[in-house]
Amino acid sequence: MTAVDRSTPPAADTRSPLKSWLAVWAIALGIFSLMTSELLPVGLLTPVGSDLHVSDGTAGLMVTVPGLVAAVSAPLITVTAGRLDRRLVLCVLIGLVGAANLASAFAPNFATVLAARFLVGVSVGGFWAIAGGLAVRLVPEKQVPRAMAVIFGGVSTASVVGVPAGTLAGELSSWRTAFAAVGVLGLVALACKLWLVPPLPATQTIRLAELPRLFRETAGVRIGVAVTFLLITGQFVAYTFVRPILQDISGVDPDLISTLLLGYGVAGIVGNTVASSWAARDVRRTLLVIAVALTAAMALFPLIGTSPAGGIGLLVVWGLAYGGVSVSLQTWMMKAAPQASEAASSLFVAAFNLSIALGALVGGLAVDALATTSVLWVGGALVLLTALTAWSARRTQVS
Q1: Which of 109, 204, 286, 287 has the most Cβ atoms closer than 10 angstroms to its Cβ?
Q2: pTM recorded for the entire structure
Q3: How far apart are CA 72 and CA 279, in angstroms?
């Protein structure tokens, strides 16, 4: 990496603890807004598809498109940000996601929705790639694991509050109301960035050629990307269609879906909290536990999730396990390349979002061509491969 200004002190060195943590929470709100935006269609596939006259599989493109775009925008924005203040970049990206969701709320057709989802993907990829490594600049070193847990708690909180609330808004009013609300949330997050986050001058510039070099020369980064790809693809093959799974397999009343997604999210917050502590001590074993638990939850759904009680129980296990994924994977990448945190983070975010897109696409094809249960078998198999890959990494320096 090429140093820009190594003499620039971290914000944590010059700000009070309260202001530092308010900045951390402001970034967490941004992550929450982004992930709520990206995952909102999961709870609204059926109403959006019905209103805009497309199938559930086609409606799944609302998850696929931003995932693909985010996979490309993560490394590109990290590189092109260059010497720009990271606070400015984050503000532009969170403002863009707010505008994109408002555009979706007033979209006359599905093509317009997909165009807005393209912009969401740009925001998600760039924001996450940059924000993921900012904890070390905002708080003292000993508080970094807790700050990362807060920032990536935005992912779990999006599941516990954002997606269920959006689903509920869609049930009580319309899916357009849900998208409009998330658009306003993005603008609120923008205001918080402007007010609470300090200037964050660039400390590194990254050339595009350095990203593949980091991948080639660092075994821990390669394994981290592989684990991310398998785990997130498997998750979103199945989770994109959690609403049809609960309705078709478990026989859950459609009016209860938003409440159940709330329970999934609560479990996810618990999982995030536990995993952040475990991952700081042994990230490989943490990912092994997560992968085994996710595999079990998916594989058992067609077997013991055929009643509402069974489906609800497995959904809670699913949420508990997945809640620890983001912070564990980000911790892996930071440990694999501690001197190249932004570059490693951009590769992680690219793999993460490409996997969301691929998982939603594969799941959509399976649902339309086969049956709802097929996404659980495919997803479970991919997550099982994650466990085997993490186990094979026991000789790397990442732990």
Answers
A1: 287
A2: 0.74
A3: 27
How far apart (Å, rounded) are the C-alpha atoms in residues 241 and 42?
7
- Whether the CB-CB separation of 243 and 298 falls below 8 Å is answered with no
Distance CA 362, CA 383 (A): 14
CATH number at residue 167: 1.20.1250.20
Structural domains in the chain (count): 1
Nearest to 137 by CA among 243, 293, 251, 14: 14
Residue 61 Cα distances to 55, 110, 203, 241, 317, angstroms: 10, 10, 37, 12, 27
- CA–CA separation, 110 vs 175, rounded Å? 13
Give the span between the Cα atoms of 172 and 190, in whole angstroms: 27
Q: Which helix (H) or strand (E) holds 364?
A: helix 341-369
pLDDT (tens digit, 0 to 9) for every residue of the chain, 399 residues total?
333 333 344 444 556 777 888 888 888 898 899 888 888 887 787 788 888 888 877 887 888 888 788 888 888 887 777 777 888 889 999 999 999 999 999 988 999 999 999 999 999 888 877 876 777 777 777 777 778 778 777 776 776 677 778 888 888 888 899 999 999 999 999 998 888 888 777 666 666 667 778 777 788 888 888 999 999 999 988 888 888 888 888 888 887 887 887 788 788 888 888 887 788 788 888 999 999 999 999 999 888 888 899 988 999 999 889 888 888 888 888 787 777 766 777 788 788 878 877 887 888 788 777 777 888 998 999 999 988 887 876 666 565
Q: Which domain holds residue 251?
A: 2-395
- SS3 for 258? helix
In angstroms, the Cα distances linking 11 to 8, 112, 137, 324, 334 are: 9, 41, 6, 27, 19
